[in-house]
Design a protein that fits this description.
- The structure is a single chain.
- The protein has one domain (about 20-85).
- It is about 20% helix and about 20% strand.
- It has 2 helices and 3 strands, in the order H-E-H-E-E.
- The chain is elongated, with a radius of gyration of 17 Å.
């Protein structure tokens, strides 16, 4: 299967649904103070996306004291991004 280059639909980037746009993860992680955790709704953001974003930055030596966890009963799960205190 190949694409017909003459029949591609191009739209303005502002028309892309918010969930499909790139999240500025550095800005998100930076607001989490040491010893605090950010709580995210898994219906708004994928647990895998958060974990991948953090892992990618940790491979570059950033956010070493952070981890991602998902907890809660079925239907009420939450994603936690935790910034551990340094020891």
């Amino acid at each position: 299967m190949s694409l017909d280059i003459n029949n591609l639909k191009i739209i303005d980037a502002s028309e892309v649904p918010a969930g499909m746009r790139r999240t500025k993860w550095d800005e998100v992680f930076d607001v989490i103070k040491e010893g605090k955790a950010l709580v995210l709704d898994p219906t708004k953001v994928s647990h895998t996306s958060v974990r991948q974003a953090l892992r990618k930055r940790q491979e570059k030596g950033l956010y070493k004291n952070y981890y991602v966890s998902m907890k809660g009963p079925k239907g009420a799960k939450k994603i936690y991004v935790v910034h551990n205190q340094r020891e």
